[in-house]
């Protein structure tokens, strides 16, 4: 199997890329929230229009912070051909299992209605 080491290297490269993208994006999303929150706590008290802008920024950075917990699937889907192929393969397998069960279910429903 001369292609085996090459495939392993390719897989390792994709996994490293996925990890680096995730770490970078996690850092960005978390740091954005931390920086604004530090400014909010340590900075001058806001009034009027500035308070409204501050409230918007607080909400926006909080949204970014919570997006950090939902990003993995999207990062993996966008950055890794390996993940996409395995994901699509699993979808295909499960859909085949579901559709192969349907004739059995329909047969059981039909026989139970005739009793």
Automatic annotation (TrEMBL):
The keyword Membrane applies. Keywords: Membrane, Transmembrane, Transmembrane helix. The chain crosses the membrane at residues 15-36, 48-67. Gene3D superfamilies: Rhodopsin 7-helix transmembrane proteins. This is Uncharacterized protein. It comes from Adineta steineri. The lineage of its organism: Eukaryota, Metazoa, Spiralia, Gnathifera, Rotifera.
């Amino acid at each position: 199997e001369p292609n085996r080491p090459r495939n392993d290297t390719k897989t390792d490269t994709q996994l490293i890329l996925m990890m680096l993208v995730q770490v970078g994006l996690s850092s960005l999303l978390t740091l954005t929230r931390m920086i604004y929150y530090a400014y909010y706590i340590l900075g001058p008290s806001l009034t009027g229009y500035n308070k409204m802008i501050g409230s918007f920024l607080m909400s926006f950075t909080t949204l970014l912070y919570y997006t950090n917990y939902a990003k993995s699937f999207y990062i993996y889907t966008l950055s890794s051909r390996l993940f996409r192929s395995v994901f699509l393969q699993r979808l295909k397998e499960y859909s085949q299992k579901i559709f192969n069960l349907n004739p059995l279910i329909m047969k059981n429903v039909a026989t139970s209605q005739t009793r």
